[in-house]
Fold each of these.
Amino acid sequence: MERKTAREFDQELLVLYDRYVHGQIDRRSFLQHAGKFAAGGVTAAALLEMLSPQYALAAEVPAGDPRVSSSQVKYPSPEGHGEMRGLLARPARAPGRLAGVVVVHENRGLNPYIEDVARRVALAGYVAFAPDALYPLGGYPGNDDEGRAMQAKLDRAKITADFVAAARFLHGHEACNGKLGVVGFCFGGLMANTLAWRVPDLIRAAVPYYGGQPSAAEAARIKGALLLHYAELDTRVNAGWPAYEQALKESRIEYQAHIYPGVHHGFHNDTTPRYDEAAAKLSWSRTLEFFGRKLA
């Protein structure tokens, strides 16, 4: 299926889809309300399929790329779900130990897009570690709808503990030189913000993409630097940014924030219509430049 662009869909339908993928409405409700946009033989179900990720359409660094060494590894999470698993990726010819970057998925487990992002980070010269929050339930099921339902069943506090444990695991890994960053998307953006204050002595650089924000008291604990990416049309997440920015200023936390005009939540995900090539490439170049400065 050819990937469409967000401009080919009504803004109301895109907002409806955003509510669906973030659990505010169920599939039945989405299809019911999307019916008003069905025309020309295109059903509401077909619209949902068009808006959903098509992972076969994009793989910048495919699995098996000889430039990257990657494998699934397990790690302990005593305060979370006990034992966890994630994708560890690094340059195939790494000259010694490298800085590490935790890569955090969206609200549906370690899907192919996030695995690809982890390999991109590795190709940029880092040890990347992308945990799968769904491992206690068997891991990402190969379907985002199922993955989203599975992640919603897990205890949020234990999920957070699993990612804290992942940061500690990567920090102490033999391939890592102890300098640590994190990048995350959607739920992962929230988790990038969370790790910045939960393990402030470890996280030197955090890059949340359209992620939910911590409280002012939590933000005050951050010691590393932040690079925050927001989408102009993502009013749901953006509503929390003014208070977060004020908290960062009051606590004198180093940060840079970019709000990309005319784009939607998820603009970095190159498997969906919400992908915006210009914003995705610009934000990613800024991300790598940021890591290059802060993790050098």
Amino acid sequence: MSVSAPVAVKHFRPHPWHGLEVGPEPPAVLNAYIEITPFDLMKYEVDKASGYLRVDRPQRSSAQHPSLYGFVPRTYCGDRVSRLAPGANRGDGDPLDICVLSERAIARNEIIVRARVIGGLQMVDRGEADDKIISVLDNDYVYGEARDLKDIPHVLIERLQHYFLTYRLVPGEKPQVDIAKVYGRAHAMKVVQAAMDDYVDTFAR
């Protein structure tokens, strides 16, 4: 039996934060790298050194995420993002977080989805700007035509607000997270653009 020669590997898996494109039509239509699904009771987070997904911690509360959740490649929450969030002293130093609504259940993480921006939550976590962009799965048969928050049921926004205000809440301790406001598509795109510019300032010098 003959043994074939080793195959030369010319292409490696790109780092999901630095190696993927920000999206096909930024800041309106983005790529979202999904870390957490609505079925996860663990908090997963991309390892910044290797690009692989790691277990960050179990979810402390009984809350489950209302949507797909991840980040936008080649974005960074730095000075420009923090200036758009009154009450924040700095950005959180992570890629920009994004929630993606879809009508059909998606149970897998470590996937890339095309997300259309419709709004966001202006969240400040212990003095750090930690915005959550709200988007819909592009071409989704139910939500795909949405272009702003008014185009989707308000209860979905309430669920996202409730989740982010309570998922780390410990009974008897003071909450350290505040959602100052819910904003629509126009401001969301400003936040995305600021995060793209912060990324260039930080990594593309």
Amino acid sequence: MISKKGLALVLENLLLAAVVRAWYTRNRTVQIIPVGMLGSRSVDDLNQGLRPKDDALHFYDNRFYWEWWYFDAHFDDGHRCVLELQYPNLTNMLAKECAMLFNVYTPDGREYNNIVPFPQSLWRASAETCDVAIGDNTIQGYYPEYRVKFKHDGLACDLLFENLLPGWTRGTGEVMFGRPEKHQVFGWVVAQPRARVSGTLTVDGVEREVTGLGYHDHNWGSGFLPLYVSHWIWGRLSTDRLTMIFADISTTRRCGSIRIPLVFLALDDRIVLESSRADCVASEYMKDSRGFQVYPSRVDFSFGERDVSGDLHFAVLRELEMVNTLEEKLPGWLVRGLGNIVAGPAYYRFLSSYQGWVKVGDINLELDGETHWEYMVMSLKRGKIPSPGPKMPV
């Protein structure tokens, strides 16, 4: 039987534990992952597709709400384009603006990178289906096709994106941070993991008919994301048979510095895997073209679940885009100072080589080619090479 002294010691420790837990609860954010987020569903369930509302407006009534609809396409003649409508203007969230992103890359090496601000009065978006517009720049559609019409200076496009795979998302599509009543979320749906693209692309006023492959996804969020997300890697690749999306999201110390890896894989016209049983290793960090931040020039990504596995190696060939997210709002000396002391947020898109293999059942695919991937820094200091944190348990 426990003594009075022993009982007093137990009660003292329990009280101390309660105090520590109360402090921890007040001062630390806990991640809440929606049901169905972690385990990979069956192939039949993976190919059920999305509802119209999944790709519609996800409005949250707070000052940190944001949302964007993203498309990209790689055309048979060598042109590439990246298209996006944003609310608010993500490069200047303090301004009462929305924005259109319209980037074009030509086969002869010309680059047109445009983030075009518009007044909020020109913004509209449906909460029932994907029907988004900033003035005359529009995105409309639902499975199996979407239409995108943009125009800016000498650039224009009128493109039809036709699904070659069903739409997909993980669980409810949202990761929630902290207490549910705070509605601090990060959402993501992939309405078109792979699409056939056709239509017209105008560059420097010259219109051309184009065909190729494309992709469309949709992100939204609320809450001040840099409190919860430190940095992420996101990319994808497409071959004649394979479609792959990969990501590795790292949370801040406030959220335990947890890494959330993710891989999506489709073979031919069927989705065959969604999994968090993956490992992403970033290495060989180098300074960016402006000497502001550092990014990993090599990413090794491996995964395996059920009868699907793979091992891919990505190496940066060229920095396609770099956005210093503070430089349009603050003087350079202050941006550098904040980067050294607090954080140096930056966004990068790369042209990258890849090589490796993927196995699906008895099918073995050797892979070698070029693709795009991105690196987003939200709360790392300038020049900070992040230490790999623990992976989210699965």
